[in-house]
C-alpha cells in the first residue's frame, strides 16, 4: 500500500471537519504532508485545505523561506496563511519558539478544525530519547501524541508511524523540493546530537530499534491513559460536595480525599489538576507539596510553582496565581454609587443602597475592629478566624469604611450588612489564565 493510500485509510478513522490546516515550514516533512493532502483533495477530501507558515525570524534566511512556501503553495493550489511571531530571548530558545508556534497555530485554527503536523517516526524516537535523558515520567516517555485537543479544534500527526526514509522516497518520486534548515546540522542542540550521533549507532547495533522504541512509546501512551483515568476518578472525589467560599473563582480541591490516597496517587492526581495551570513540578519540587500537606493552616504553608502557588484554606488546597499576590489599592466611593471596579480585584456592588458621602473601600492592615449585631465590637482577625477565611484571601477582602469606622466586610454573612439594610457583595477577579503544554 502506498503512502497516500495509508494516509487515506487513517483519514477515514478521523472525525470529519470542514477545516484542514497544515503546519507548513517548507521542510521535507511538511512538504510531503501538504502534497499528500493536495492529492487527497483530488480524491474528494471534504473541507478546505490551507497551509500555515510561522515566521520566527530566528534564521537570516527566514524571509526566503516565506517566498519558497508561497511558491510551493501556489504550485499545489493551496492557500497560505503566514504568521509572524516574536520569540523573546529565553533560557531555552527552542522551547520559546515552539510555544510561539503553537500559539500561532491555535489562533488560526477554526472551531472544529484540524491542524495537521508532519512529525514522523524518527521525530518520535528523538523525542523519546531526549525526554529519557532528562528523566521524564510516563507522560513524557509516551512521546508525542498522534492527536490531541488544540484550542477549539484538534491537532493530528497523521505520519507519526511513518519512517523519515518513507517520506524522503515519496518526495523524490514526486519531484518535490524542500528547505533544509541549517540549524538541523548543529549537534550542539540536543535533538540534533541524538539524530546525527546517537540514533545511527543504535540502528547499527540493533537494526529494528525504530519499531521497538515506537512500540514502547505506544505502551507508555496506554499507561499514561490509564493514569489519566485514575487521576480523573481521584479528582472527582476531591471536587464533589458543598464547599465554603464557593464564590472564590480559583481552582481548588478538598484536601482530605487527597490525603487518603497513597503518595504516588496524590502526585498523579495533582499532576492532572495542575496541568492547565502551571508547568509540571520536577522531582525536587514535590517536597513543597509534602510540606503543604502536612503543615497546619495556621502556619499558612504554600507550594511555590511557576506562575503561582498552591495554598491551604477552609479544608482545601487552592491554586493562587501570581496576580493575587499584588496588593489591591484603596478607593474612595462617590455618593450614590452602587458598583465599583476594583483594579486587579474584580467588582464590588452595594446591594440595596448606594454609597453615602465619605464612604471608602480599603483592605486589611491589621488591628481592625467591627461592630457585630448582638455581639458588640470584635477584632476582625478573630472574626475571620471563626469563619475559616483562607489566609491568602484576607488581604483582598474589600472593607467598607466611613472615616475610621469599619462598616462591613464583603461576602461574609453577618459581616457584610450595610447601614441601610443592604449588603456588600464582591465578585473577585480570577486572574487564572489557561496553560497548555505544547
Residue runs with pLDDT of under 50 for 5 or more positions: 433-438
Mean pLDDT: 89
CATH topology descriptor of the largest domain: Rossmann fold
Please report the distance between the alpha carbons of the first and last residues.
32 Å
Rg calculated over all Cα atoms: 28 Å
Strand content: 15-25%
Shape: elongated
In the CATH hierarchy, the architecture of the largest domain is 3-Layer(aba) Sandwich
> How is the main sheet built?
6 strands, mixed
CATH superfamily of the largest domain: HUPs
The structural class is alpha+beta
Give me the side-by-side strand order of the main sheet: 3-2-1-4-6-5
**Portion in helices:** 25-40%
Q: Provide the CATH top-level class of the largest domain.
A: Alpha Beta
3D architecture notes:
The protein is α+β, with helices and mostly antiparallel strands. It has three domains: about 5-205, Rossmann fold (3-Layer(aba) Sandwich); about 240-320, Up-down Bundle (Chorismate Mutase Domain, subunit A), CATH 1.20.59; about 330-425, no CATH class. It contains 14 helices and 19 strands. The protein has helices spanning about 5-10, 30-40, 60-75, 95-110, 120-135, 140, 165-175, 190-205, 210-240, 255-260, 265-275, 285-295, 380-385, 390-395; strands at about 20-25, 50-55, 80-85, 115, 145-150, 155, 250-255, 300-305, 310-315, 315-320, 330, 340, 345-350, 360, 370, 375-380, 400, 405-410, 425. The strands form five sheets. The chain has a six-stranded mixed beta sheet with strand order 3-2-1-4-6-5. Helix 2 packs across helix 7 and helix 5 crosses helix 9 (about 210-240). The protein starts with a helix and ends in an 11-residue tail after the last strand.
Amino acid at each position: 500500500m502506498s503512502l497516500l493510500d495509508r494516509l487515506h485509510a487513517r483519514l477515514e478513522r478521523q472525525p470529519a471537519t470542514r477545516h484542514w490546516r497544515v503546519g507548513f515550514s517548507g521542510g521535507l516533512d511538511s512538504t510531503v504532508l501538504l502534497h499528500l493532502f493536495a492529492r487527497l483533495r483530488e480524491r474528494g477530501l471534504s473541507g478546505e485545505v490551507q497551509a500555515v507558515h510561522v515566521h520566527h525570524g530566528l534564521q537570516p534566511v527566514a524571509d526566503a523561506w516565506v517566498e519558497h512556501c508561497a511558491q510551493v503553495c501556489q504550485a499545489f493550489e493551496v492557500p497560505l496563511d503566514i504568521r509572524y511571531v516574536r520569540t523573546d530571548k529565553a533560557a531555552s530558545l527552542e522551547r520559546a519558539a515552539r510555544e510561539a508556534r503553537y500559539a500561532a497555530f491555535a489562533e488560526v485554527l477554526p472551531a472544529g478544525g484540524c491542524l495537521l503536523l508532519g512529525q514522523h517516526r524518527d521525530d518520535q524516537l528523538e523525542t523519546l530519547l531526549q525526554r529519557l535523558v532528562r528523566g521524564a515520567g510516563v507522560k513524557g516517555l509516551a512521546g508525542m501524541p498522534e492527536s490531541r485537543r488544540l484550542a477549539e479544534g484538534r491537532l493530528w500527526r497523521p505520519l507519526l508511524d511513518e519512517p523519515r526514509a518513507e517520506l524522503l522516497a515519496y518526495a523524490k518520486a514526486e519531484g518535490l523540493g524542500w528547505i533544509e534548515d541549517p540549524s538541523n546540522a548543529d549537534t550542539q542542540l540536543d535533538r540534533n546530537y541524538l539524530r546525527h550521533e546517537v540514533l545511527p549507532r543504535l540502528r547499527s547495533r540493533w537494526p529494528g530499534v525504530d519499531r521497538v522504541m515506537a512500540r514502547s512509546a505506544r505502551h507508555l501512551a496506554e499507561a499514561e491513559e490509564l493514569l489519566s483515568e485514575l487521576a480523573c476518578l481521584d479528582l472527582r472525589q476531591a471536587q464533589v460536595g458543598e464547599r465554603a467560599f464557593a464564590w472564590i473563582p480559583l481552582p481548588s480541591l478538598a484536601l482530605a480525599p487527597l490525603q487518603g490516597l497513597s503518595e504516588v496517587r496524590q502526585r498523579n492526581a495533582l499532576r492532572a489538576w495542575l496541568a492547565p495551570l502551571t508547568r509540571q513540578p520536577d522531582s525536587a519540587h514535590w517536597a513543597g507539596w509534602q510540606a503543604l500537606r502536612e503543615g497546619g493552616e495556621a502556619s499558612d504553608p504554600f507550594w511555590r510553582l511557576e506562575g503561582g502557588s498552591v495554598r491551604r484554606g477552609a479544608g482545601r488546597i487552592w491554586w493562587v496565581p501570581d496576580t493575587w499576590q499584588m496588593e489591591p489599592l484603596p478607593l474612595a466611593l462617590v455618593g450614590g454609587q452602587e458598583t465599583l471596579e476594583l483594579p486587579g480585584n474584580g467588582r464590588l456592588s452595594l446591594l440595596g443602597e448606594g454609597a453615602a458621602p465619605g464612604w471608602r473601600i480599603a483592605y486589611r492592615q491589621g488591628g481592625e475592629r467591627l461592630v457585630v449585631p448582638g455581639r458588640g465590637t470584635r477584632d476582625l482577625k478573630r472574626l475571620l478566624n471563626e469563619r475559616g477565611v483562607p489566609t491568602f484571601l484576607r488581604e483582598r477582602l474589600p472593607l467598607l469604611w466611613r472615616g475610621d469606622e469599619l462598616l462591613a466586610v464583603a461576602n461574609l454573612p453577618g459581616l457584610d450588612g450595610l447601614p441601610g439594610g443592604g449588603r456588600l457583595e464582591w465578585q473577585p477577579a480570577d486572574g487564572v489564565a489557561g496553560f497548555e503544554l505544547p
